[in-house]
Amino acid sequence: MSRDDEFGAYVAARRPHLYRSAWLLCGDQHRAEDLVQDALTKLYLAWPRVHRMANVEAYVRRMLVNGHIDESRRPWRREHTTYELPDAPAAQPPGEEADELWTALRALPPGQRRVVVLRHYWGLSVEETAGDLNVSVGTVKSQTSAALTALRRALLTEPASAVTSMTATTQGDAR
Fold first, then answer.
1. What digits encode the pLDDT tens for the residues 75-111?
2. Residue ranges of the RNA polymerase sigma factor 70 region 4 type domain (predicted)?
3. Which residues span the domain enclosing 106?
4. Cβ-contact 140, 129 below 8 angstroms
């Protein structure tokens, strides 16, 4: 199989998952498409070396996260506003129903959103997430805790009674 065939097969199989991850990271359909395209362009250039790696997914995932961090740190690379209205970003990933979870997830600060996406969408361990984000394990734990607290607060309709019952359940489990 040629380089292009191998790369094409990888992209065909993984692009939807990569796009969804990028969308969860940035919350904007167009930025997510750009993020995935940039990562795939870089991946294609490195494909002869990367496709032999034991974990291509980790490499690509790290490219997505680093690309998102890079964009958030370099505002001069972003598009500039004009008098004409741009296309409005999608409220949720294509094919998803409008959902309170997406709204709550988009409301999280970028660092917490990254941790949630890597831990709960990609299913990474705390250590793997820390490695991908180049932060300490403690930072991952604190960001996860803060993010999950914010998500619970945003998603619970009756916060006082639900938090009380969750606390009672958690305390019962800890004994």
1. 655 555 556 655 655 544 544 444 777 788 888 998 9
2. 99-151
3. 98-175
4. yes
**Of 37, 31, 16, 33, nearest in space to 121 by CA:** 16
Radius of gyration of the chain (CA): 19
Q: Which residue has the tokens 């958030």?
A: 72
Amino acid identity, residue 73?
A: R
173 to 34, 38, 42, 158, 162: CA distances (angstroms): 45, 45, 47, 22, 16
> Structurally, how many domains does the chain consist of?
2
Closest CA to 36 of 10, 55, 9, 17: 17
Judge whether 90 lies within some domain: no
pLDDT of 125 > 70? The answer is yes
